Amino acid sequence: MTVDRKTWVIAPRDPLVFGNGVPPAAFVERRGALPPPSTIAGMVRAAFVAERGHVTPERARELLERISVRGPWMRGPAADGEAVLWVPSPHDGVRARDAFQRATVAEPGEDEGVLWPESATEDLRLVHLPERGTDGAKTEAIDRDTPLWPLSAAVRWALGETVTPAQVAPRQRGEDPTGVIGREHRVHVAIDNTTGTAQPGALFSSPGTRFERDFKLAIEVTARDESGAAPPGTVVLGGESRLSFRGVDESAAFPAFDMYEPQYVKALDRRPRGLRVQLLTPACVRCDVKPGAQAWRPAPAVAGIELVAVCIPGFSAISGWDLQAAEGRGAPRAVRRLVPAGSVYYYALPKLSGEALKKALLDACRQLWGRPIAPDEVRTPSDEQQHLAPSARDGFGLALPGFWFDGGIG
Known about the structure:
Number of helices: 5
Helix content: 10-25%
Strand content: 25-35%
Structural class: alpha+beta
Order of helices and strands: EHHEEEEEEEEHEEEEEHEEEEEEEHE
Strand order of the largest sheet: 9-3-2-12-1-14-13
């Protein structure tokens, strides 16, 4: 078997349009700063057959098996001008004026009512997000103003260290602060399919995503047994056939755990209580979700861990279009519910303590670092799933491990 692994960087030529299969709706704000991993994976696989006029169903299934994607993340300048990797910010904290405050994990109080999912265990704890800062001002979600953080800041937060808004700000030009991404909304008019003309008064808007200057998408692409790599050039990413420029840049690769291991070893001296896992990409935990299935609860392949608490801000939905379905005519995919990027899981290892616990925690972090929290499962595809790669192969559910401590998280 020949394996070719490269880090692609994508520079959009125009604002990109990312959908999730859900029709436009009034007053609905779509969450997520980065495109869905499946959108990226589709672009990557299409790049390997871009010069062909027709792709057979057999070739399409080969690409699902041979091409896997890890990501996406961003690469761009931090406040000091250095080009760094940017990942989704954590949801287990809030912003109070010029400071970030952490959530705390605690048992439900006597006067607190909890509506757990049917599949949840009764011993789960609550994650409390502060409603007001130390100065009495109301707090807001971290991802409202800073949806992406430098990877180094996300690691510090994962290890219980202090992170300030200045440390997660991108480079500024002049006096005006700049972000990593921007939103653009365009107004359209609905078309009557029977007449081909506009429907009177039927206006709707669609969002576009604009990357700030010097920011690019980065993804790791692994091709197995492919005779030729996709050549650099233009690719189509997202809706409306918007073009982007593709290159290869190994400096944008997701770093190995060895780079941050000294920080993890130092954090172990503060005696963490357990394992904290933040999602860097949305997690599609199960493909065969049925009523009562634990679609929100992954099972990392780490021996001896038990779920303590979760911090999930709702769910996001994703669909798509299956070009090979309906005998080649195409058909919409079933909607899948995802755990959003930035969500956090807290685990304990109740049978371990002391040095054994420290070693187990460090081994777990090394194992989960930048890898899918849900495994690349081996399954027999159903009729609905035969043209759908396992979620891990498309880049869903990448994990950033860390620790949680006494007195809350941090």
